[in-house]
Give the backbone structure.
Amino acid sequence: MSANKYHFNQVLERKGTNAMSVEGYRGYLFDPEEDLSGKYSEDDFIKMWVADMEFAIAPEIINAMKERLEHPLLGYSMVADPSYALSFQQWCIDRYQWKFSIEHLVHAKGVIPALYDLIGYLCKPDEKVLIVTPSYAFFKHGADYNGVELVCSNLIEDDDKFHIDMDDIKKKASDPKCILAVFCNPHNPTGRLWSKNELVEFGEVCLEYGLTIISDEIHCDLLRKDKQFTPMASLFPNSDRIITCMAPSKTFNLAGNLFANIIIPNDDLRMKYNENYLPVENPLSIVAAEAAYSEGHAWLMELTDYLDANFKYLKEQIDTYLPHSKFTIPDATYLAWVDVSYYFTDNENLTLYFARNAGVLLEGGNMFVANADGYIRLNLACPRVLLEEGLRRIIKAVLDK
């Protein structure tokens, strides 16, 4: 296969496509009325924030969607054909050596909508949800939405690597009111790919104290070339208290298709989920997801090479020009978690600083619940030319401070 089969260097214009990254950042990153005037006009902002890609999706997926559009009916649709579930199951067998039961598979309009629902089904108002921090903010929002208390356990950074504080997890999981853990594997934002030993230790503690685990594994396919992912549920085949959330959205840049895979082994919970879920899916989403899992491997391998090179470039630039920053290439995801705290005062709004002074949209640590002050998260799923210009601006804005 030619290394140039897919075109990850192609810069695509997203204005006029209702793209969240282009049209929605004011309401998400800032107060809509926030003054962002500075060295760059908003038209020239480089978008390195929301977790979708600036890459064209695989032509195999586009072709499947076009073929579906040849049939002129787009009425109410559902996942009725077993070929979809079989394609996703085979993907998990091939990549993770994990065969889940197809009977346990349900769907959602996204991992986060499923998370909101599941927290509500599992937790009473006086009960608690455990997460590790820093954390994807919607884990907190899901607890808040359901009126349940959030309990945070800070990750420990040691030798340029993040670790779970298992003593703290044991202490917090032992609270009888703590009945659910929402876990992220691979972890967003740090990019840690948890080892089998870490997953077993975390899982055993939670299950011993009676917690159900929702394992958000949406970044599981986006690994550095030498890494291997392990679904948590695969390590506890006899437990029905580990819910697995996966989707083609991050892997194949299909977030707008609003289609996720939720594996719920507990019969009662799955029945409750299905009773409250309207099983109507976008017909294009169904064919896109099936094409991704059945025909997307080659595209993903080429994407992996491109992302690995982008991370290597970022590491070289930071080590050379911002030597007091701390950054380790993550095991997984296309998100870089960079500690720039040496250059800034405590609690400074870094999202706002870099918008005004670098014309770069990124997410500062204040957006990741707790234990994240002085960090920035950069989305590296973009053509190299955009990464180069974005980094040039970021470095200059730090050094000019």
User: Anything to note?
Assistant: The mean pLDDT is 97. The first strand starts at residue 46 and ends at 47. Residues 8 and 303 are 7 Å apart (CA to CA).
